[in-house]
């Protein structure tokens, strides 16, 4: 076999590299499209607020918004969970709760109940307390 003949037999290298590059581009495009479709962006975050609970009795307690984002109870945007049960309807007052606001929560409590305000969109807690009657 002569040396010049050996170099003439490399015809298939370009098509193989071309196919590999096309597959790689297709995979990258599929990953980018999937990221947009499935929403792999930043997750929802709960409102950041400082809430103080006081005057706890067996028939309810006061809450005071001391700072941070406004909290909305309208359309169940924020839920009040007491001992694992949804007690959002027990909140007496406005649909929105902003800095300086005070509300009465008219619900039965027992000592040691867990009290949590949870953002419904992100399912993250806004504030947590333990009933101290």
From TrEMBL:
Keywords: Membrane, Transmembrane, Transmembrane helix. The keyword Nucleotidyltransferase does not apply. The keyword Membrane applies. InterPro entries: Flagellin/pilin_N_arc, Pilin_N_archaeal. Residues 11-84 form the Archaeal Type IV pilin N-terminal domain. The chain crosses the membrane at residues 12-40. This is Archaeal Type IV pilin N-terminal domain-containing protein. It comes from Methanohalophilus mahii (strain ATCC 35705 / DSM 5219 / SLP).
């Amino acid at each position: 076999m002569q040396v010049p003949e050996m170099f003439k037999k490399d015809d298939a290298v370009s098509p193989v590299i071309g196919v590999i590059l096309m597959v790689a581009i297709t995979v990258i495009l599929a990953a980018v499209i999937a990221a947009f479709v499935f929403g792999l962006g930043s997750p929802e975050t709960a409102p950041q607020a400082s809430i103080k609970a006081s005057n706890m009795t067996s028939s309810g307690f006061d809450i005071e918004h001391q700072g941070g984002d406004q909290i909305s109870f309208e359309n169940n945007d924020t839920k009040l969970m007491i001992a694992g049960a949804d007690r959002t309807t027990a909140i007496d007052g406005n649909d929105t709760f902003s800095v300086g606001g005070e509300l009465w929560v008219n619900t039965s409590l027992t000592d040691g109940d867990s009290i949590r305000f949870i953002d419904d969109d992100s399912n993250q807690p806004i504030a947590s307390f333990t009933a101290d009657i």
